[in-house]
TrEMBL record:
Species, as recorded: Caenorhabditis remanei (Caenorhabditis vulgaris)
Native organism taxonomy: Eukaryota, Metazoa, Ecdysozoa, Nematoda, Chromadorea
Domain F-box stretches: 3-44
PANTHER family per record: F-BOX ASSOCIATED DOMAIN-CONTAINING PROTEIN-RELATED, F-BOX-CONTAINING HYPOTHETICAL PROTEIN C.ELEGANS
Record-annotated Sdz-33 F-box domain positions: 207-259
Protein name from the UniProt record: F-box domain-containing protein
Pfam families: F-box, FBA_2
């Protein structure tokens, strides 16, 4: 192939400027093409498997090299009837199996790639991720749409996941544990609905940097006290103020230097008892000489920029770490909010 007769810097720049579907097609031209491509360093901007991308819903890989480039979608299903006579056709061999592919243009700036072989979604996804030396970063899944559960949780590409969103209306604690046992370092975990059965408080779920629980009926005091991440968020928690006071006391009397933020929305009226927190922690109003007015979020944790804590209540730990409790009452009792912040950096500019 004439392309590879060019110097490495020349052909690598040409290939990295291609869209994913073009790189995949090129890799099927010959063994030499595939091996040369695997030597190139790609920047993978976005790599996610989600059940929320195509209809009918099924797991789908979305891969994109840059914000301005076309993306590729690989549904883990056969092409729907309307797509079987459209688009471009080509063949490719993956792990010794010959696939008859059909690619069609998405309505936006993407390409949808189908194979004629059933249940080959992970096989194709692993091939592409290995080809461009990319890692799967995000999973947004309704776990009820997984046919082969044992095969799914054993997939090697899941090990690299950093963000997981569980979208199932309900999920068993057994399935949840099986999934997270195969993930090395989940950083962001979102669980949208109810978990049925007991979840081990020592699960890696409670060691993720960010944990957001939208349905909290399964969360216990042990889960709360066992959290060992940075950012914890609950919607409509079922535990009361005593558990939160115990959580804050555990931080105050311990040596945890990792934890940063607890946020809770739709909390009961008892959380609005400002005097209770003043009494428990000898908390004081904001002192501008001790910290800034606004708390700046870690960009790696959340897209929020700042939180105004001028109305917060402050107290210090023995090692000098400062914490702020913020109570946000609302006329609508379902909108009461409670927040707890730890200041790892009190000022953004030198005094």
């Amino acid at each position: 192939m004439k392309l590879f007769s060019l110097p490495y810097l020349a052909y690598s720049q040409i290939i990295t400027s291609m869209n994913p579907i073009e790189v995949i097609c090129l890799s099927f031209c010959s063994k030499q093409s595939r091996e040369r491509i695997k030597q190139i360093r790609f920047h993978v901007y976005y790599a996610v498997i989600s059940t929320e991308i195509v209809e009918p819903k099924s797991p789908t890989l979305q891969l994109q090299f840059s914000p301005s480039s076309r993306y590729i979608l690989i549904p883990f299903q056969l092409a729907p009837r309307w797509a079987r006579c459209e688009g471009r056709r080509f063949t490719g061999i993956i792990d010794g199996v010959k696939h008859y592919f059909r690619s069609t243009d998405d309505e936006d700036d993407g390409t949808i790639l189908y194979s004629d072989i059933k249940k080959c979604g992970f096989q194709i996804s692993n091939y592409i991720l290995d080809l461009v030396q990319g890692k799967l970063e995000k999973l947004r899944m309704d776990l009820h749409l997984i046919d082969d559960w044992k095969g799914f949780v054993a997939e090697p590409c899941l090990n690299s996941l950093s963000r997981i969103e569980i979208l199932s209306k309900t999920v068993s604690s057994e399935k949840l544990s099986a999934l997270f046992n195969n993930i090395e370092n989940p950083r962001h975990v979102h669980i949208h609905y109810k978990v049925e059965g007991r979840v081990d408080p020592n699960s890696i779920i409670f060691r993720s940097d960010m944990l957001i629980i939208y349905e909290t009926s399964w969360i216990t005091r042990e889960h709360l006290l066992g959290f060992n991440g940075k950012y914890l968020c609950f919607i409509n928690p079922i535990f009361g103020i005593e558990s939160i006071i115990e959580f804050i006391k555990q931080w105050k009397n311990g040596n945890n230097t990792k934890f940063a933020i607890l946020k809770m929305a739709e909390v009961p009226q008892e959380f609005m008892n400002r005097d209770r927190f003043i009494s428990e922690f000898d908390a004081k109003p904001w002192d501008p000489t001790k910290r800034e007015k606004c708390y700046i979020y870690d960009k790696e944790i959340t897209q929020d920029i700042v939180a105004d804590l001028s109305e917060g209540l402050d107290f210090e730990r023995d090692d000098g770490l400062l914490a702020t409790i913020k109570i946000r009452p609302s006329r609508n009792v379902r909108r009461h909010r409670f927040q707890f912040f730890v200041w790892h950096k009190r000022f953004t500019t030198s005094e």
